[in-house]
Design a protein that fits this description.
Shape: globular
Structural class: mainly alpha
Oligomer: single chain
Distance between the termini: 50 Å
Radius of gyration: 23 Å
Order of helices and strands: EHHHEHHHHHHEHEHHHHHHH
């Protein structure tokens, strides 16, 4: 049975956060499973709505990353500058040089943003080169689903997810299996876990029959590991640290793990940020430590999560819950 793979836009945008080594491994997706051995088992499903959503949000994700990359200059205390004026001057000059180099990196990145010249651009561009057309029948069915029937998937004032679902209902044959990779909770059961939304699963079985399966993955790394035995090493390191934080049994251990997570500042996916918030609220060794160590707990969490990041990356409830428990100047 052939597997039809749909990658949600939020997952494509997360590609901008992966390391060089992991990006090379993501090359397995280039040109939509062009490798004959892979293409015999998998079909990549891309439509025009997919591509439009990606281009609408691409610049926001890159700018959010640039915002997280900054250098904070510090003054030399008078005690030191009076005693060692030459060394203090060298220190200030070094800071100015660092600031200049940082701005140069940002300027170069923005130029590649405009030219679509980033490595990730080339990968995603090859995947989205020939998207399927979303015809009027699919759009009308999506509008009926969203506006009249009120059926999932979808968010307030947006029928993009409904278009994707109607497209997949038309695209995937009854002889195929559908795999959806998304971090968006609208696609999942309210009972939790990685089970598909109950109504969508019911509808899929009604339309395709009991032999066609609907499988969900919340991240591209989970999909690649399970379906292709491909491990994204740096993504695995982040996930392992998040699990360590979830199971942390002391204040000191929580602070230590958060210190290691700071090495990945600006690299956490939306799904990883959601898990970081969830684990921080569930584990008393984290949220109670905020009272005693706001600089090593709350401030670090706010920097890692970057509440001012990509639009739609975190749902409103998740952000509200986080703000109620943690506060920091970094999020302002």
């Amino acid at each position: 049975m052939k597997k039809y793979v749909f990658i949600d836009t939020n997952i494509y945008l997360d590609f901008y956060r992966v390391s060089k080594g992991d990006l090379n491994k993501l090359g397995i997706l280039r040109n939509g499973f062009a490798n004959p051995d892979i293409a015999d088992k998998f079909v990549l499903c891309i439509n025009m709505q997919n591509r439009d959503e990606y281009y609408r949000n691409r610049a926001n994700v890159i700018e959010a990353t640039l915002k997280e990359f900054y250098f904070k200059k510090v003054d030399v205390p008078g005690l030191m500058s009076n005693q060692w004026p030459d060394t203090s001057k060298q220190f200030i000059q070094a800071q100015n040089q660092m600031e200049s180099l940082l701005q140069s990196l940002k300027d170069k990145t923005r130029q590649l943003l405009y030219d679509e010249g980033l490595e990730v651009d080339r990968l995603i561009g090859s995947m989205m080169e020939k998207p399927d057309i979303v015809d009027e029948d699919i759009v009308r069915a999506a509008e009926r689903r969203y506006k009249i029937l009120g059926n999932p998937p979808g968010k307030k004032d947006s029928c993009g997810d409904a278009i994707h679902w109607e497209y997949l209902l038309h695209k995937v044959p009854s002889s195929g299996e559908l795999i959806i990779i998304t971090a968006d909770n609208d696609w999942y059961s309210s009972a939790g876990g990685d089970r598909p939304n109950d109504f969508l699963l019911y509808e899929w079985r009604q339309r395709k029959g009991g032999s066609s399966n609907l499988q969900m993955y919340r991240s591209i790394q989970a999909f690649l590991k399970k379906e292709m035995s491909v491990v994204l090493e740096r993504e695995a390191q982040k996930d392992n640290l998040l699990e360590e934080l979830r199971n942390s049994s002391s204040f000191d251990e929580s602070r230590r793990i958060l210190g290691h997570l700071m090495e990945y500042k600006g690299e956490l996916s939306g799904h990883q940020k959601t898990k970081l918030i969830q684990y921080s609220l569930e584990n008393s060794q984290i949220y109670k430590a905020q009272e005693y160590s706001p600089k090593t707990i709350g401030d670090r969490l706010c920097m890692l999560i970057n509440l001012g990041g990509s639009p739609g990356e975190l749902d409103e409830k998740t952000m509200t819950d986080f703000r109620a428990a943690f506060s920091s100047d970094e999020e302002k």
